[in-house]
Amino acid sequence: MIRIPCPFCGERDHSEFSYGGDATIEYPALDASIANWHDAVFQRQNICGMQFETWQHLNGCRMWLVVERDTMSHEIRSVRPAHTGMAKALEDET
Q1: Taking a C-beta distance cutoff of 8 angstroms, is the pair 33, 39 a contact?
Q2: What single string gives the DSSP state of each residue in 68-88?
């Protein structure tokens, strides 16, 4: 079981979240070719180790988060809001 420390709701079971994918992918423009979209969606590395991923806290605050997770051990090193404005708001509270 993976426990994800949501910055808004506290530590929660991963079953409350929906996996969004690799957070480091830069998607092409909407009018890009099908080949560019194919490569962005399907042609990527299968990382063995630390990876930045997006997760949405569906059964909680519904916020999108960037989770730094080890794909081998499922250790979570960091969690931050995916939207920079929300990250700034959290910083201002401390």
Answers
A1: no
A2: EEETTT--EEEEEESSHHHHH
CATH 3.40.190.150 fits 3-93, yes or no: no
Radius of gyration over every alpha carbon of the chain, rounded to an integer in angstroms: 15
Would you give the DSSP letter of residue 64?
E
| Cα–Cα distance, 93 to 8 (Å, whole number) | 12
Hey, how many other C-beta atoms are within 10 angstroms of the C-beta on 81?
19
Q: For 32-87, write each residue's pLDDT tens digit.
A: 999 999 998 898 888 899 999 999 999 999 999 999 999 999 999 999 999 888 77
Q: Which amino acid appears at position 82 of this protein?
A: A
Give CA–CA dist 82/52, Å, rounded: 11
CA separation, residue 46 to residues 12, 71, 87 (Å)? 26, 9, 28
Q: Which two tokens stand for residue 33?
A: 């070719």
